[in-house]
User: Fold these one by one.
Assistant:
Number 1:
Amino acid sequence: MSQRLEALHAFWRTVSRYLTWGDYLVIALVLGGASATIPWLQGTFEASGRWAIVRLEGQIVHKLSLAQDQEITVIGPAGETTIQVQGGRVRVLRSPGAQEICMRQGWIHQPGQALICLPNRVTIEIPGDSGIDAISR
Amino acid sequence: MTPYTRGELPEVWLLKRILFAALLALGIVLYVLEGLFPPLLPLPGAKLGLSNILVLFTMLFLGYKEGILLALARSLLGSFISGTALAPGALLSLAGGLASAIVVALSLRFLTPPLGLVGVSILGAVTHNMTQLAVAYFLFVQIGGLFYYLPVLLFFALVSGLVTGLIAVYLFERLDHR
């Protein structure tokens, strides 16, 4: 164990010989920049870039920002469907239909997810693709 | 028949060309080889950029312009050889390589007394990743969510710049002893 520690120490001595104070400054700046941007980015892009698109019989009737808590009602052929947005997520509160499938789906929040209330012809979709398009090498 | 030698002896001129060609060949090999390895982490951007050691070397021994040219040619020819040419990824790599080479040249010229090679290398790696992110944003996907990746890319740039910089210093120290 102490041998391993000694080897680590020797390695560090070698490495630190190669570093100037300017290098340490650059390292600190980059580390600081990386950690400083984490909360800022989360706050800015978490919900604001996401929308829920509400369609009635295929036509877009509402575009809801997930950043804003709200409740809307869509009137379809079978009755009223109430949609709730809260904390960056969206769900169907009430909708006509015997099986209540879209209500039982609960909250959705990720791009690519969708809620479908078939009896009332209402669909709620969060557009976007969470996958990776290309990897740069 | 004597080539234009810019005031150098023809022998020196020729040696410099040969050295440049050899360095470029090495750079392409490193670039392609690195692309063949499975990524250490399943994330884009997590790459060491070993061929940047050769860019540093070229700038120190042959000149800044030659180093920038090497970075450009390495990305272009390397992507043709590895079969990723003209794909979005290759364009990102080209833009990143060029911007990074320019920043490395500038910081070698103006910042090297306070900075060492490691610091220069980290600056180059950060520029490389940031340029890729910016190009990806403006050319391909204009969604803010892309910038989620900024802290991750910064961190990877730090690690890869540190590692390549340390290798470079170690290497050049050995060369000095000869």
Number 2:
Amino acid sequence: MKEELFVSGRNIPNIDPYLNIWHWQIPLYLFLGGLAAGILFFAGFYVVRGKEKQMQATVKWAPIIAPIALVLGLFALFLDLKHKLFFWQLYTTVRLESPMSWGAWTLMIISPLSFIWVASYMKELVPGWNWKFNFLERFEAWVIKNREYFAWAMMIYAIILGVYTGILLSAFNARPLWNTSILGPLFLVSGFSTGLATIIWISKDEKERKKLSRIDLILIVIELFLIVHLFMGFKAGSQTAIEAANLFLGGPFTVSFWVFVVILGLIFPAVLEVLELRGFHVPKWLPPVMILVGGLMFRFIMVEAGQITRYLY
Amino acid sequence: MRYAMAIDTKKCVGCGDCVVACQTENNVPHGYCRDWIVESVDGTYPSLSLEFRSERCNHCDNAPCVRCCPTGASHIEEGGIVAVTHDKCIGCGACIQSCPYDARYSHPEGYVDKCTFCLHRVQKGQSPACVDVCPTRCLHFGNLDDPNSDVSLAIKDRKWKVLAPEAGTKPQLYFLT
């Protein structure tokens, strides 16, 4: 048996007895970032595929949420900073080794893109809209002419943003729960799924909803597959990884993770979506709300639990 | 040049002088510390073994805190000392998450703070405050590249270990066992 004690009375706020330096702001931001990434990806995707007419909600209406989510997410990030007045230092340098640095730059690109995207549809969304200034009208015409290029850029940056929400955590070698490369794809797929859920929720077109539900089902299956692999990897790993997995397999996060994230946030809405596709009547808001709440819970749990895991010496 | 520290766990009695010396020397805010002492008890009664470790930042050769810093506030000073430029730090907490030794903390003023090996003293040719004050002389500081430095001589003929070598950080605190 081994027992280790701080005998010099170390009790640093937010670090002892276990690390808790990131609070609600980070998981909320990861959720909003993934959500925006999902919405923007599919908006770009259906424009590139030339299906603007059939996918009205995906291409025109849902993207209104993306810039709002990104701004709220950035604000949450700002609240998390403890030396707030120096936040601009993020944009004085590019540090390729730091995921947070290239995440900040990605946001710097995709946020304006999302605003421009929504603005280019303003005339269709709000009848009678005009931009008042001539140069804005000219800019709009230029964007509409080159919309497909914007769509491609948005898809690429949406994937980077989605992966980044996972890599932000997985780059921390010191936190064994996060330090797995599966987190990148897992957060990407989960973010896309929450984005799709939002579109399904607001779409009024039966055909569009069915099409998106089918894609969402595939994403949910991939997500479940990645979660299984995450835990297989941990259980086959070192002692630090095994202890990380044990937080979810009998430890304090078991119920919240398996019940609220996996069953109520993934399996149950997937079953409801299948029933809906088969023609059963399911309340329209129910599967999307469950997916969104599940996705939010997932990020809160991962951020909270990851900080507890550590090297043992 | 490569600054490093050797801690003789056989000599350390866990008095905590190094902790107080550091807090005084570096104006560490109340309730915080840049170094600390771990008492490690191993085995079952009656065959117990006891080890005291005076711990601090490991000034790693492959420092994850420097790599993950988005602004470059965390950086490597002369001799491999890991330091933070306060006015560049945004307080995002990434470096705190990245440290396997929990050696960093968020200063009440917002920036991240940590052990500097007393860089301001070392530059004047003095030893870090914790080393100078240690009553059992169990802390040895110096340049690893110099075979006659205090730290090189201390680890030369003794068995030593570093903490969590599997973290891949190449830590530069050598615990003599």
Number 3:
Amino acid sequence: MSKVPSDLKYTRTHEWLRTLPDGTVEVGITDHAQHALGDLVFVEVPEAGRKVTPGEPFAVVESVKAASDVYAPISGEVTEGNPALASAPETINTDPYGGGWLARVRPSGAQGGLLTAAEYEKLTAEEGN
Amino acid sequence: MARRTPLFAVHQAAGARIVDFGGWDMPLQYGSLIAEHHAVRRAAGVFDVSHMCVVDLEGDQVRPFLLKLFANDVSKLTAPGKALYGCLLNERGGVIDDLIVYYLGERWFRAVVNAGTRDKDLAWIRRHAEPFGVTVRERDDLAMLAVQGPEARARVAGLLSSAGAARALALGAFFGAQIDGWFISRTGYTGEDGFEIMLSAGGAESLWHSLTAAGVAPCGLGARDTLRLEAGMNLYGSDMDESTNPLESGLAWTVALNAGRAFIGREALEALRARGIERKLAGLVLEERGVLRAHQRVLAGTAGEGEITSGTFSPTLERSIALARIPAAAGEQVQVDVRGKLLAARVVKPPFVRHGKSLVG
């Protein structure tokens, strides 16, 4: 069973969100997503200063077999992309909710359409995985 | 409903991720694809390749039949058990399939063809076999395991009688023999040494468990693909098909154009060659970060453009490699359109990796 920490928010497209003490939101892909992708070998993270809107592809994760877009879950401005992933993309496989974070975003406006851990767990169960 | 090999339940029980491949439910990977890849490069791995189609060809006229059907020259097959790789071509010189043909006796040859092309291959083979009175028998009673890696032969030998082990270990490259009830050949699709074993379907599960108990890693089609690509081996349907000919697919070495043999596709190939072959299948090594994938556009400057036919991340080289069909005049440096960015790649002659070692610097 894949892990779904209860203190995070989630999206239907398998991103997770964590609000940090300074108000920025850390974004990554879920344990379920990294497991489905398999060994990650290349990650492209967004640059600081980039403005994003919900649903916009803002990062790319590539496994041996395929490339997948990661979507911005909220609107705002990227404050930082995770620099450690360039040389160690496998961190997403081993620590998806920690060292495997992709980007931090300073939110602008209201956040909507996010799922709780229980809702996300239900979603992945319904997908049959 | 997809077909299943005799080992399907074993794969499921091992937690394999199952995917459709050529109409078969096959294991993609059991755990980490990269770990499976390294197991084959460094020790030994086992693949279920029972989806491949084994066809026995029998009759007095089987050799003349294959001289006509097969683009490689079965006159090279004189020692019992010797195998030969080559293509079936249509009249236009397009590749119907690539296959291995074993010489088992003057009246008995064995072909191993791809799973995804099984039906059209069998129809083509049967159609041409009839005038030669050759019997075409699909051996769906057989399972096939590929045991590959530097330790693979020793692991298999450990499961044989002492006389059988001695015979198996004495097999030369591209030779096979019936040993202790199995047909064992020193062939593979990984660029490593090893055996492929054909045996009755009922014995497959026991052999699989004996191999894994001996420390051989179960490996899926995902690692099979990265291994074959590092080894510079073509995949039918990706790197060549009926719309491409062997001369532009890196397979000229498998086409025997020696005098006097009228094989199907020969006239078309000679006409193509006379006009000049304008494309080639080359290896690419990505010089920047990113991953090359099939169908990405290759820009070769004034020589023109081409397309990647197979691309992946190479676990051995820790960078991306590809096979690409590019203009024959392309130089050593090209660019690839990777998700809208032009990345630099170097053109090399495959293979990229052989016996665990990088060949591309």
